[in-house]
Each structure stands twice: as C-alpha cells, then as structure tokens.
Design goal:
This protein has 324 residues and is an alpha/beta fold. Helix content is 37%, strand content 19%. Among the domains are: 56-161, Nitrogenase molybdenum iron protein domain (Rossmann fold, 3-Layer(aba) Sandwich); 205-323, Rossmann fold (3-Layer(aba) Sandwich), CATH 3.40.50.1980. It contains 12 helices and 15 strands. Strands 7-6-5-8-9 form a 5-stranded parallel sheet. The protein has a 4-stranded parallel sheet with strand order 12-10-14-15, with helices on both faces. Strand 1 and strand 2 (44-49) form a beta hairpin. Helix 2 (80-89) crosses helix 5, helix 5 runs antiparallel to helix 6 (183-204) and helix 7 packs across helix 12.
Length: 324
C-alpha cells in the first residue's frame, strides 16, 4: 500500500506569548512579501531589496531541468500533498487543477478550499493541458510518460519524489514556495510545523514511549522511511516495525513477534482494527490484550503535507489523553 495522502489545534503556550509570536511572524512575513528589509547603519535606515525570483531554473527530484519564466498564476497539481501545500501558499484563483482526493474528506483537509477547482483522477496530459497551466506539480508515482508529454508543449513540470518524512515534507513546502514565488509564506509554514513538533517533543519527553504498529487491511505495515514512522516518533512512540524498510507485507506471526503495545490504522480503514482484535492468532499481543487499538483521522494520518503534523497530534492525544 503506497500511502501518499494524510488541522492543527492551538499550542499550549500562554495566549499572550502566542499573540506576540503571531505579531512578530506577521511583521516578518509582511516585510518579506514586499522584498524589503531594514537595518540601522550609522544612524540611518538602510534598505535592501531581494533579488527577483524569476526567471527560475531548477532541477526537480527526478533530475529533470525545469525553467519557469515568470511567477505562475495557473498552477496544476496532480498530487494531494501539493494540493494541500498550495492551499496555504497561493491564492485559490491561481490553482487551476487539483486531485480528486482533495475533495474527499476521508483524505483531505482542504475540502472546502478546493470547491469550484477542476479535479483530476489519474494524471493524463490531455486533461492537465486543457486547463492551460503555466506550472504543473506532479509526483514520481504519476502515470509514466505524462511528464514528458507536458514538457514537450513547453509547460514547466516539477516532479516530486520524496515524501517519507517530516524533513521531506518541509523541503517540499520550501520548494513549492520557490516555484510559486511565495518563499516567505513557505518559510513561515515550515517554522510553524517545527514549532508544533517541538511542542510535541516537549510534551512527550518524560512519558513512556509505547511500541506502535501501523497496520491495515491491505496487509502492509509502515516501517522506517515512511511518513507514518515520522508521525509515530513525533507522537512519542517507537515504531514496532522499524526493522522494515518502507511499506512491507507482514504476517500474523510477525505481529506476534513484534508484540506492539499499540496498534493504529487510518480511520477510513477502522473496521480492520476489530478484525485484528478478534483474530485468535493475535490474542497474546499486548495491544490486543489491553485494548489499545486506535483509528487515527485518515486525512491527517495519510497526509504528506503540513497536515501530517496534526496526525502526530492526533496520535499523541490517543496515547496521552490527559494531555489533550
């Protein structure tokens, strides 16, 4: 199972501190948007202007050369992670295509935002080009050959290939900010993610760190080098399947050997947890003996955008209910 899809509650800092931080971020963002910074120099205010962001030449994660002549105003996305990232960075009017998943509340945190924007299921060049994009954001798992077909028309395409950690998500946000001329907003979004993760780390520092298995009806478990692994660790847990690399098939015998103290699954697959709980072969597993099987909101748990942090918050709330 290739999981490539996955809101954020208030941090626990005092309201006064939050207001101060918000104000500071707002000032920094405002100055950054206008490309101006001010510094004192011999008693006078010195003014520095940022270099223009376009034209832009970059190499994407599939090692393709990408040239963007001017700031895009017609952006097409064929990956839900990018749908969600774009929603935080650019005006809705600049997004001309998103994935069908973006309008499904089981997988998306931006259902209301994408209303009225054309949707695409499987990526195909004809439907993408029909919306006349000046930038297309795709993923390595999209239909082979589509990237080349679009590139032949002269439309720039950036192909993302890395989705398996919070670090990758942060990198993708910053790249998207650069591609869309919204670098300052992207930096603020990443800073907020890091602030949320730091708060979670502080909250769980002196708690017990349960072993957690992410399993599903598809028969795959989330090992290391998956976004779910990052979610588990950020929530204060230890991945029981850490010896596996990526998403791997597992058997009942392997689950018994792992003996996780908690088992989780995405909420859209929640009935599977009941099957596990009643499975005769798993009755010695700690999570089943102590009834610690949790369904985590699918839209958060399967996210590969900024909303993945909320997946960690959702899980932490299950593990440490007194700290919700």
């Amino acid at each position: 199972m290739l999981v490539l899809r996955r809101k954020s509650s208030e941090a626990t800092a005092p309201m006064k501190m939050k207001a101060t931080v918000s104000l500071m971020l707002g000032v920094v963002l405002t100055l950054s948007i206008f490309g101006v910074s001010f510094a004192a120099h011999k008693g006078q205010a010195a003014q520095t202007f940022k270099k223009p962001e376009f034209p832009l030449r970059v190499t994407d994660q599939a090692n393709h050369k990408v040239f963007i002549k001017a700031k895009p105003t017609r952006i097409a996305s064929t990956t839900e992670g990018e749908d969600e990232i774009l929603s935080a960075l650019v005006p809705k009017k600049d997004i001309v295509l998103v994935t069908a998943f973006a309008s499904n509340p089981s997988y998306s945190n931006i259902v209301n935002f994408v209303k009225g924007i054309p949707k695409i299921g499987n990526a195909n060049a004809e439907q993408i080009l029909a919306v006349r994009p000046d930038l297309v954001l795709m993923a390595s798992y999209d239909t082979p050959g589509v990237v080349g077909q679009i590139e032949q028309t002269g439309v720039p395409v950036y192909e993302f290939a890395d989705f398996n950690s919070f670090a990758n998500i942060e990198k993708n946000i910053l790249i998207t900010g650069r591609l869309t001329g919204t670098t300052a907003k992207a930096e603020v979004l990443v800073a907020h993610m890091r602030q949320e993760l730091a708060a979670l780390k502080k909250m769980t520092k002196n708690r017990l760190h349960p072993t957690i298995l992410d399993d599903s009806s598809y028969g795959f478990a989330a090992g290391r080098n998956t976004t779910v692994n990052s979610v588990i660790v950020a929530a204060g847990g230890v991945n029981a399947a850490n010896q596996l690399n990526g998403w791997q098939k597992i058997t009942d015998e392997e689950i018994v050997k792992m003996n996780p103290s908690v088992i989780i699954d995405a909420s859209d697959d929640a009935p599977f947890l009941k099957q596990l709980a009643s499975n005769p072969a798993l009755q010695t597993v700690s999570a089943i003996q102590h009834h610690r099987l949790y369904a985590i909101n699918s839209a958060d748990m399967t996210s590969v955008s900024q909303y993945a942090v909320q997946g960690a918050r959702d899980l932490a709330a299950m593990l440490y209910p007194s700290h919700r």
